[in-house]
Amino acid sequence: MTIPAASGVAGSGHRGILQAMSVLEIEMRDRVAVLTFNDPDRRNVVSDELNAALLAAFDDIEADDGVGAVVLTGAGKAFCAGAVLDSLLAAGEGAGGDLPHIYSGFLRVAHSTLPTVAAVNGAAVGAGMNMVLACDLVVAARSARFDTRFLTIGIHPGGGHTWRLRNITDLQTAKAMVLFNQVLDGEEAARRGLAWECVDDDDLLDRAVGYAALAAAHPRELVAVTKETLHATAAVDESVPAVELEIGPQQWSMKQPAFAEMVGKLKDRISQKG
Q1: Of 128, 196, 257, 264, which has the highest C-beta tally within 10 A?
Q2: Does residue 205 sit in helix, strand or coil?
Q3: pLDDT tens digits for 153-189?
């Protein structure tokens, strides 16, 4: 696999720290927004503050045509340690009324029109694993630990956890992790399909940004429509409806200026080689 080297923070162009919140840091590397969960003393828990910051950040990022992809990672030794336990207890006392709010951050990630990459450093636990499962691509550090942990604290999985985990891996892997407390490290996660690959910790962020840059290089609207189609194919199990599902979006793409421009460039390269 060929991955371009990630850009540094310093330099000209669309780079540098755009916004620093108390629990979320946003950095631009060319057309890639790097969002870092920045609450290391609490192992980057899914707090009300983090959820609010994620909602605001994705609204801003999606409104910026200069952003083509997003990377999520964690500060310190953990990716995301899951929900705040007191918030879960309060939600239980309130008949689950606060659960949608607890889920709001990672669902905003899951429903983003932009391609998203999880750069998983250290532990991703419970709702923190949901943050991983919400992303389009997962790159794991060797230090990564994927731990569902819901049943261990006496709570049923939530936020679509079992559905996402089963879709990304398989039924047996989902059962092993959820029912039998199996925790995967980065290498095992890659073998099981939970991560695309496992890399050294020092290479993690650059590797994730490199992947994100590949997606960010495509026309933004085309990526959004293609991502929507990929999700829609989950309900298709035969060839004919699969072809029909793609006809409309493909015809739309062929009418876009980018298509003629990119085909023209390809023809020029071919003629130069000939």
Answers
A1: 128
A2: helix
A3: 998 999 999 999 999 999 999 999 999 999 999 999 9
